[in-house]
Amino acid sequence: MPIRKSSSVINRRGVIGLGAPPTPPPPPAMPSSFPNARSSGLFSAPKDARFIDWTVMNGGIIGHWIRVRVFKCPVGAAKIVIAGPTAVFVEAMFAAHEAVALSSGKPDRRSVYYEVVVEDEDMRMHPSVQLFRKYPNDVIAGTLITPGDFGQTVT
């Protein structure tokens, strides 16, 4: 006589995880405005820099939307958006990033600075910036702008 498996064992198999993991729910709608905006402050790029890489780590317990803009800030002229706004939903304990090419690979050296502005809903979002010669392998030592270096611009 063949052995029969009970229907409860067969039903539990799907619950225990023998199938694909359930798809996560979609993120909430992006807010129309963000209560926090933080700036890296102005920074210059060494002559061999080719990329600005911004990163944001969500140190909170729930996911949040962020919006990031990268600016070129020529002395004596209005700043210009060179990347963004980039909106990203960052899950709790995850990071997001984007590498932005500087002026098509040739940074402008005529008194030009750069700025990264991160807008978010939660102060547990930790932004940072690094400069690269060649992305992603050749970071320029000493160019890290840490979360503690970002200044609050909107409350």
By CATH, the topology is Hypothetical Protein Tm1070, Chain: A
Total of domains: 1
User: How are the strands ordered across the major sheet?
Assistant: 4-3-6-1-9
* Coarse morphology: globular
Our count of helices gives: 1
SSE arrangement, N to C: HEEEEEEEEE
The chain-level mean pLDDT equals 84
Q: At CATH's second level, what is the architecture?
A: Sandwich
- Total strand count, please? 9
Poorly predicted sequence stretches spanning 5 or more consecutive residues = 1-14
Proportion of residues in β-strands: 35-45%
- Amount of helix: under 10%
**SS-derived structural category:** mainly beta
Overview of this protein structure:
By secondary structure, the protein is mainly beta. The chain has a single domain (34-154), classed as Hypothetical Protein Tm1070, Chain: A (Sandwich), CATH 2.60.290. The chain has one helix at residues 7-16, and strands at residues 36-39, 51-58, 64-74, 80-90, 95-101, 112-120, 125-134, 138-139, 151-154. The strands form 2 sheets. The chain has a 5-stranded antiparallel β-sheet, with no helix packed on it. Strands 5-2-7-8 form a 4-stranded antiparallel β-sheet, with no helix packed on it. Strand 7 (125-134) and strand 8 form a beta hairpin.
